[in-house]
TrEMBL record:
Substrate binds at residues 78, 99, 102, 153, 365. GO terms for molecular function: glutamate dehydrogenase (NADP+) activity; nucleotide binding. One of its GO terms (biological process) is glutamate biosynthetic process. It comes from Microbacterium barkeri. It comes from the Bacteria. The active site is at residue 114. Keywords: NAD, Nucleotide-binding, Oxidoreductase. This is Glutamate dehydrogenase. Residues 191-431 form the Glutamate/phenylalanine/leucine/valine/L-tryptophan dehydrogenase C-terminal domain. One of its GO terms (cellular component) is cytosol.
């Protein structure tokens, strides 16, 4: 904490991992001898830069850009870019730190990194977003590359932003280096299923967790928070597997729709016009909008927090326990506070952490990198099948590792330990670098 002052989210993410590692350090003293934990907590490189741009009124605007290249023991740094006014170094470092273990858990050759800016895309025109992205890339380009660091999207960065970023990278470098960014459009080097992958992967993980308990998704009530990329495709796959998604949200409040979320309408409102969930309620008789409030008050069997960090607190967790929720699976990164996690586990709710649950996004990014490297493009069915197999193997690895380290059924211990040992072993092999 003294070394990284004021970075509350980073401290929270580190503490959460360290709390799982006691049994590992007991069994593997060589990790302590090599100072693996202290080295893991120190990013290999942190870049902070000025992002000046001109708005539609001709005024100069200024934002701050970040890229934290955390760990490259397993492969090039890999992790998204977030554009949101709350972004500062502590957020980027928490996300980058988590990314190391998540990426390791996928079993694919990718290191961990994350980036972003305090730029707020809300209310900005396409032309403003483009000028911002061009300015951001004008600095970032010198730090990234298909063998170095491969960014992707995150909150506020979707297909549109990746397009503007890639366009500027291509222009500055005079290289059509498809593998430098993932989340690209299908016609210019993107992969089928990348857009859907984090949400679909989240539901594939839940399916495995239910199956391990002799259950399935058919007829289950599901609440999904957020209405962005992850939330929309988690809703789509949950519905396709027979569940009923009854609530959705954004930062202004939540909507309950007892008839089940009409996904075509939600996509039209969100993707087409970048609208609000209140617009959804206004256009659908079976739905009502609650301004502010907690979406977790809506009774459900399965809760999928898919919006942002620390969105599910201890009160929300208590409501979920009271209402008989079976499983909470994190589609977002660190959406559940440590107190809430405790309440859920003490209340007998199965808790599955984001590192494992939402790893389908980065795994499919790695599949995009494979296709770019071989100048190939796979079908939707084939790519979705690969994603489904990856999620099933992540689920199995979490359970096996939890068993091995004396915490049967504990997905948090399983994910943290499996991710950690994979990276730590590579760091040992590479020496003190
Ligand atoms: P989007 O920008 O597409 O959507 C974010 C959604 O969350 C929006 O509905 C937004 O509402 C809502 N939201 C954001 N901040 C808040 C807040 N403070 N309170 C309430 N709601 C909020 O982002 P993604 O769907 O891509 O990302 C969602 C989460 O999933 C993040 O934690 C991200 O790190 C994680 N993730 C994303 C991956 C990906 O592939 N995209 C991969 C792995 C994890 P509003 O529009 O009102 O801001």
């Amino acid at each position: 904490i003294r070394r990284n002052p004021g970075e509350a989210e980073f401290h929270q993410a580190v503490r959460e991992v360290l709390e799982s590692l006691g049994p590992v350090l007991g069994k593997r003293p060589e990790y302590a001898d090599a100072e693996i934990i202290r080295r893991l907590c120190e990013p290999e490189r942190q870049i902070i830069f000025r992002v000046p741009w001109v708005d539609d009124a001709g005024r100069v605007q200024l934002n701050r850009g970040f890229r934290v290249e955390f760990n490259s023991a397993l492969g090039p740094y890999k992790g998204g870019i977030r554009f949101h006014p709350s972004v500062y170094l502590g957020i980027v470092k928490f996300l980058g730190f988590e990314q190391i273990f998540k990426n390791a858990l996928t079993g694919m050759p990718i290191g961990g990194g994350k980036g972003g800016s305090d730029f707020d895309p809300k209310g900005r025109s396409d032309a403003e977003v483009m000028r911002f992205c061009q300015s951001f890339m004008t600095e970032l380009y010198r730090h990234i590359g298909e063998h170095t660091d491969v960014p992707a999207g995150d909150i506020g960065v979707g297909g549109r932003e990746i397009g503007y970023l890639f366009g500027q990278y291509k222009r500055i470098t005079n290289r059509y280096e498809s593998g430098v960014l993932t989340g690209k459009g299908i016609t210019w080097g993107g992969s089928q299923v990348r857009t859907e992958s984090t949400g679909y992967g989240t539901v594939f993980f839940v399916k495995e967790a239910l199956a391990a308990r002799g259950m399935d998704l058919e007829g289950r009530r599901v609440v999904v928070s957020g209405s962005g990329n992850v939330a929309i495709y988690a809703t789509e796959k949950a519905q396709a597997l027979g569940a009923k998604v009854v609530a959705t949200s954004d930062s202004s409040g939540y909507v309950v729709d007892e008839a089940g979320i009409d996904l075509d309408l939600l996509k039209e409102i969100k993707n087409g016009h970048r609208g609000r969930v209140s617009d959804y309620a206004a256009r659908r008789d079976s739905a009502h909008f609650v301004a502010g409030g907690s979406i977790w008050d809506v009774p459900c069997d399965i809760a999928l927090p898919c919006a942002t960090q620390n969105e599910l607190d201890a009160d929300a967790a208590a409501a979920l326990v009271r209402n008989g929720c079976l499983i909470v699976a994190e589609g977002a990164n660190m959406p559940t506070t440590p107190e809430a996690t405790r309440v859920l586990r003490e209340g007998g709710v199965v808790f599955a952490p984001g590192k494992a649950v939402n790893a389908g996004g980065v795994a499919t990014s790695a599949l995009e990198m494979q296709q770019n490297a071989s100048r190939d493009s796979w079908s939707f069915e084939h790519t979705e099948q690969r994603l489904s197999e990856i999620m099933s193997s992540i689920h199995a690895r979490c359970l096996e590792t939890a068993d091995e380290y004396g915490a049967p059924g504990d997905y948090v211990a399983g994910a943290n330990i499996a991710g950690f040992t994979h990276v730590a072993d590579a760091m040992l092999a590479l020496g003190v670098i």
